[in-house]
# Entry
Amino acid sequence: MLEQILVQTVNGLVNGMVLALVASGLTLIFGIMDVVNFAHGDLVMLGGFTGAVTVAHTGNFWLGLLVASVVIGLFGALLQITTLRPLIGRDPLTTIIATFGISLVLQKYALWQFGPTAQNIPQPIAGRFELFYLQYPWYRLGAAVMAGAIIGALYLFLKFGKYGIWIRATTQDRVMAAAMGIPVPLVHTGVFAIGAAMAAASGVLFAPLAAVTQTMGFDFTLRAFIVVVVGGMGNLGGSILAALFISLLEAYASLVVSPSQAVIVSFVALILTLLFRPTGLFVPTPK
Amino acid sequence: MPRTSRTFWIAFVVVVAALAVAPLGLPEFWRKFLTEILIWGLLAMSSDILIGYTGMVSFGHSAFFGLGLYGAAAALLVLRSPNLWIALAVGLAAAALVAMFVAYFATRLRDIYFAITTLVFSQIFYVVIFTWTEVTGGENGLYFTQPPLAIPGIFSVRFSTVSLHWFVLAIVALSYLALRRITQSPFGMVLQSIRENEPRTRAIGYHVERYKIVAVLLSGLFAGLSGTLYAIQHRFAAPDFVFFTVSGEVVIYNVMGGMGTLVGPVVGAAFFLLLREGLSRFWAEYYLIPLGIAFTLMVIFMPQGLLGFLKRRVNQ
Amino acid sequence: MLTLADVHTHYAKSHILHGISLEVQPGEVVGLLGRNGVGKSTTLKSIMGLVRPSQGRITFEGRDITGMASHKVAHLGIAYVPEDRRIFKLLTVMENLRTGLDRGGLTEARRRELLDKVYESFPVLGERKNQLGGTLSGGEQQMLAIARAMMLEPKIILLDEPTEGLMPRMVSQIRDIIARLHGDRVAILLVEQDVGLTLGASSRCYIMEKGLIRHQASSAALKADPSAIHQYMGV
# Structure
């Protein structure tokens, strides 16, 4: 029993890191421009497909990761410029509906472009090691480490460097940031692109663990929403902790119920958070 | 919107009469399709109360619809002789129960958080219904018989496609009149005032929470009603109807047709369903690409929907 | 250098500015006086592009900047110090300064120069340079807001009520910094409730009432005969 719990802990942490990568993009975007990106999960999906196609042609996983991130990042920038910029100043509900429309288009586009079959990426790190009673794939740990590395890189970028300051300033007070000469519209596009690239990267990291399908986006979006709310909207550190927390909860729950039912645990976590600590579980109580 | 009573009633009677007569001249498939449009139109209307009039975006209408559907299904399966009225009652009761839950959250959460919660809510129901196979039939759904139109002891007559259509038309038309009455009443005015400026409405002295609760209950009830009607028409319930897609489509009907007009969402539903039926013959699922693009563009540039756009044109 | 011609601005549904016309010459310190709510802040915001005028024209150095995006206005050489300071609370003092300093085109030496100048005028900022902006006191935040604007090396600074809520010791520091900026040939459009400070620091003053300029005169004239001030400000 204890071994099962420990194995699930590892699983939860691994899944949590990939989810954290998705969620941090979402919370970054929300924090800076009040956009709840309903299509975020579909960016994950598109990243997965783009990566799969690249790997199929070149045989190189890392190239796939890079290409997917860059392509989807640029695509995200394009998306933001065409559909989200006109919506600045409108209430967040309009953007959630607009991004919902985009999500529909992206899903069906993926169906058209990549066909109805699921796609796979072979694991770049082969082999397993003994984790208690299981043969545990090295890649799972590798994916978690890579996700962590990307998040770490994001953190460093935000903390140091001129553009990091621009992003943080715009997130805190976009009006004043503009008054200081920071090109706010460009910063918005840049952040959306970064968020999209991170989503795409997580799609590629996720692909060797399970297949990439056109409809997987919604699941990611839903999970990411839950993580972002539980972690505190706009709070990067909070969403990482929340992602780990939610994934661990689900992992433990699937010891008791089936995995498709385990998902209810995260739903309940969301509802409880909204009832009792609506600003987020991992956010210090506002004064 | 200011309408002289006479013009409205004339238009209303004409439209209802047309809808009543139409199936007589249509092939079987389109008769049923027309009935279905009415049912989805009712669902769209119910959602308009929240989205269009009160300004509360809900992604959870599939929960209300689904509970109405499964509630009626349960009634029709459990009773030895299926009863129309009991099915309606149980479906409505189930939807009302869910509505009370959602109403509670409506008062405590604002905007996006409410939208996300309704989304999560409908997914909870989906997962429960999907996995609780013993009770709900899981993925395969439930099949049941269609109840007759009956008043026990007096008469009982089976529904034909056309008579069922009339039954549904009657209910939907009455629902429309009821909702119209409500939205044009002082209560409806307060809802719109909440949508325009909630803090000010509260400052004037209205108990915003109470109004929101009633709005959610109303919306949920009529949504549940549409689910119940769907059960009666199709004799089949499946978890797909509780999945988010239904909620998403409802939002599309609302936005495309014109929020806050009651009629708009019905038009939006009809438009979308007809388009889907027509386009899917050529383009299978890909019809959603141009439709989705059109929808997104409408959200950005034509937020008042088709109806609002036409209204402007007519008024010029 | 900066001209406003018949500027009307609406905010939500209120008509705040009813046709403001004023001008600021290079290197001038001009005061904008008036009671609360007459539209002084809105005037500054209209210049800065924070609100868009519905009518009228704003020109800067011959260029029409009416309704221009704020970041472009800043690049032209107009800096803004808002009435609630609005420093970036979650950025350190240094990072706050960098939002202006990092604008590109500055050599390392010039950056050092600007920073030194600011630390000289506001030594407390130098001491606290790695502290978060939100931990500073009100007066220190005001210093930071002004220092941040100075990082842009602007041709004109729009100062909105810099002495509000400050202790007298701080007020005199503000007075000194205005004088210093004036010495560096930076123009200032000063919105203030403190009439004495304004008359002392500026060469000219406008008096606003209900969204319009009601009176303008040299500060010397107003010091000699404050009747207009009494009339429009009720002081």
The first helix of chain C runs from residue 40 to 48. The beta strands of chain C are 2-11, 14-24, 29-34, 53-60, 63-64, 78-81, 156-160, 187-191, 204-209, 212-218. The CA atoms of residues 101 and 216 of chain C lie 36 Å apart. The two ends of chain C are 31 Å apart (CA to CA).
